[in-house]
């Protein structure tokens, strides 16, 4: 393909499965600047640092979709290692970030720390990395402070544990509410458009259209 017809991707991404939860820690970068963000460093920080080294990008931020231990267990350690700010989640997940150590203890996770982000995120806020800008959607239900990162230009979202391929986030945990979760998906995510693809917190990604048509929690089969 010659240079005139090549369409260069605006972003690159690498999924780094971490901990026994197989959580999708995501390294996302701007292709134009090679500036990057780590989304949801749930643990195994040396593994995350090695992925950063291999991709030769410069991480400037850490973003958190929500406060559960499998998504934030490595956040404080990674912030110290990279000397970058943490942005997110919504302040309604403060009770989770205040109890990272006790949450980790229940799952045998040591070396984790309670922490606060450098910036809480609200509905309508914007975050950016390099030339990429993302809108913040507050989507409670899995946790009270869950947020989704959405880039309209690329028709792409990182939805954390709000929505999965063929499923939705758990709501049988402290702060969870199934009706609230479904309302978040119906009111905030489905209107983004069927062509929007997404990375989620566990398992393979999908698209809004695929989930609208086949997800049993959205079609009424569940």
UniProtKB/TrEMBL annotation:
<dbReference type="InterPro" id="IPR051453">
    <property type="entry name" value="MBL_Glyoxalase_II"/>
</dbReference>
<protein>
    <submittedName>
        <fullName>Glyoxylase, beta-lactamase superfamily II</fullName>
    </submittedName>
</protein>
<feature type="domain" description="Metallo-beta-lactamase">
    <location>
        <begin position="22"/>
        <end position="202"/>
    </location>
</feature>
<keyword id="KW-0479">Metal-binding</keyword>
<dbReference type="GO" id="GO:0046872">
    <property type="term" value="F:metal ion binding"/>
</dbReference>
<dbReference type="InterPro" id="IPR036866">
    <property type="entry name" value="RibonucZ/Hydroxyglut_hydro"/>
</dbReference>
<dbReference type="InterPro" id="IPR001279">
    <property type="entry name" value="Metallo-B-lactamas"/>
</dbReference>
<dbReference type="Pfam" id="PF00753">
    <property type="entry name" value="Lactamase_B"/>
</dbReference>
<keyword id="KW-0862">Zinc</keyword>
<dbReference type="GO" id="GO:0016787">
    <property type="term" value="F:hydrolase activity"/>
</dbReference>
<keyword id="KW-0378">Hydrolase</keyword>
